[in-house]
C-alpha cells in the first residue's frame, strides 16, 4: 500500500491523467519537459528561508544581502534551459524572489516573535488504514503548547479566508503534529503569502479535524478504485511537465514550435480549419458538416489527441457515455409495483435512484443497463 500525501491527492483532483503519469505508470519517453519556472521560484525561496532560520537558530542573524546571495545560488543550481516559462522571462521571475525575500525579511526582523522548533520537518500520520507523509516548512512555538505550522507560498493568487479555513494540507499536518507531540494545545495554521507580503492564519476545531480524516479516507478510497484517468484541463496546465503527451495539450504544444509554413501545412491544423469553417457556414442552413467531423475524429484517434488546433479556433473531441435500459425494464418495474413512481424518470435519473432500491431489485435493474459511447466534436477557443 503506497504512502499518501496531500500532493499525491491534489494531483488526482487537479488532473487524473497527471496522477497516472506521476504515480501509476511513468511515460515511456526519454524526456517529457523540464521543471516549470514557478517550481524554481518556489524552491529557491524556500531554501533561502530555511537557511535563514537555521542561521538564526545558531544565534547568528544574516543580513538581507546574505539571504539574497543564498537565494541566487539556489536559483543557479536549479536553473536549466529546458525550464518551462509560460510567460515573461527568467530575469523577471528571479527578481520576484528577491522582492519576496526583502518583504519577508523587513516584516519579521529581528525574528523574535516565536521559537523555531523544526525546519522542513517530515510529519507522518495515520488516518484509518492509510499512512500519509508531508513536510512542514517551519514549525514554531509561540508559547508553551501553542504551536504554529508555517507554510511559504509564492502563488500569485490570493484566496479568501474561507479557502484557508478549508485547506486540507496544513490541517493534515496539524493531525500529524498532534500525533507526534503530546504537549500540543493550540495550533495556528499560518501561510506566508510572499507575493502579497501577507500572513494568513487559520485554526481547526477537533470536530473539523475528525471530519477531515473521514473525507480524506473517502477520497483516497475513490482514487484507489479508479480504473480510468482522464486528462482534465485546469489553470495548472501551462505549468505541467506532461504537455507533450497529454491528449488535450500535445497538438497545442506542437503548434507553438511550428514556423508559419509548418503551421499552414500541418494535418491537424488543416482538419481543424475545415471543421471550423464548415461548421460556421453549414450551421446557418441546419446541415451537419459530417465529412469534416469524420476527418477530425480520424486525426484525433490516429494521434491520440482530444484537442486539435486550427488557425482561428480549436476543435475538441470528447467521449460521451450514456446509460439506457433494455425495454424489459418497464415489465420489471410494473411487476415490483414501482412503475408509477419511476416511469417519468429518464435513464440517468433512474441510475441515480438505484442506490435507494432493494438490493435484489437493484441487481435486476443493473443487468438491464446498457452503456453506449458517442463522440462529441465541437469548436472551442485555442
What report would you give on this structure?
There is one protein chain. Helix content is about 45%, strand content about 20%. With about 375 residues, the chain is an alpha+beta fold. Among the domains are: about 30-110, no CATH class; about 245-380, no CATH class. The strands form 2 sheets. A 5-stranded mixed beta sheet has the order 1-2-3-4-5. Helix 3 (about 35-55) packs across helix 4 (about 65-80), helix 3 packs parallel to helix 5 (about 90-110) and helix 4 (about 65-80) packs antiparallel against helix 5. The longest helix has 21 residues, at about 35-55. It is flat. The two termini are about 40 Å apart.
Distance between the termini: 41 Å
Shape, per Cα inertia axes: flat
Compute the average pLDDT.
89
The total count of helices amounts to 16
Give a count of the beta strands, DSSP E runs of length 2 or more.
8
Summarize it.
With 382 residues, this protein is an alpha+beta fold. It is built from 16 helices and 8 strands.
Amino acid at each position: 500500500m503506497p504512502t499518501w500525501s496531500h500532493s499525491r491527492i491534489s494531483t488526482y483532483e487537479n488532473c487524473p491523467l497527471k496522477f497516472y503519469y506521476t504515480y501509476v505508470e511513468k511515460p515511456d519517453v526519454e524526456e517529457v519537459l523540464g521543471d516549470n519556472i514557478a517550481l524554481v521560484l518556489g524552491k529557491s525561496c524556500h531554501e533561502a528561508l530555511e537557511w535563514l532560520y537555521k542561521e538564526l537558530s545558531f544565534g547568528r542573524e544574516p543580513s538581507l544581502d546574505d539571504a539574497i546571495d543564498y537565494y541566487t545560488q539556489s536559483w543557479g543550481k536549479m536553473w536549466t534551459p529546458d525550464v518551462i516559462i509560460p510567460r515573461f522571462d527568467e530575469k523577471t521571475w528571479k527578481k520576484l524572489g528577491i522582492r519576496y525575500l526583502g518583504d519577508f525579511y523587513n516584516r519579521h526582523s529581528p525574528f523574535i516573535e516565536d521559537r523555531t522548533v523544526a525546519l522542513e520537518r517530515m510529519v507522518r500520520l495515520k488516518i484509518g488504514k492509510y499512512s500519509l507523509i508531508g513536510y512542514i516548512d517551519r514549525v514554531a512555538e509561540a508559547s508553551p503548547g501553542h504551536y504554529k505550522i508555517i507554510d511559504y507560498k509564492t502563488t500569485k493568487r490570493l484566496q479568501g479566508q474561507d479557502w484557508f479555513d478549508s485547506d486540507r494540507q496544513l490541517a493534515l499536518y496539524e493531525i500529524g503534529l498532534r500525533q507526534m507531540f503530546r504537549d500540543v494545545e493550540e495550533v495556528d495554521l499560518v501561510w506566508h503569502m510572499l507575493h502579497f507580503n501577507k500572513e494568513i492564519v487559520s485554526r481547526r476545531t477537533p470536530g473539523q479535524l475528525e471530519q477531515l480524516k473521514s473525507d480524506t479516507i473517502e477520497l483516497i478510497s475513490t482514487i484507489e478504485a479508479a480504473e480510468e484517468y482522464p486528462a482534465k484541463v485546469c489553470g495548472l496546465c501551462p505549468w505541467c511537465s506532461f504537455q507533450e503527451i497529454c491528449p488535450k495539450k500535445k497538438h497545442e504544444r506542437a503548434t507553438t514550435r511550428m514556423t508559419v509554413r509548418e503551421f499552414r501545412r500541418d494535418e491537424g491544423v488543416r482538419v481543424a480549419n475545415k471543421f471550423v469553417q464548415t461548421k460556421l457556414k453549414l450551421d446557418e442552413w441546419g446541415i451537419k458538416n459530417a465529412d469534416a467531423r469524420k476527418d477530425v475524429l480520424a486525426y484525433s484517434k490516429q494521434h491520440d489527441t482530444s484537442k486539435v488546433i486550427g488557425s482561428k479556433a480549436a476543435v475538441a473531441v470528447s467521449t460521451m457515455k450514456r446509460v439506457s435500459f433494455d425495454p424489459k425494464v418497464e415489465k420489471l418495474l410494473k411487476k415490483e409495483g414501482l412503475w408509477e413512481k419511476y416511469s417519468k424518470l429518464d435513464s440517468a435519473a433512474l441510475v441515480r435512484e438505484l442506490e435507494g432500491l432493494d438490493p435484489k431489485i437493484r441487481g435486476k435493474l443493473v443487468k438491464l443497463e446498457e452503456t453506449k459511447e458517442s463522440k462529441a466534436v465541437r469548436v472551442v477557443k485555442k
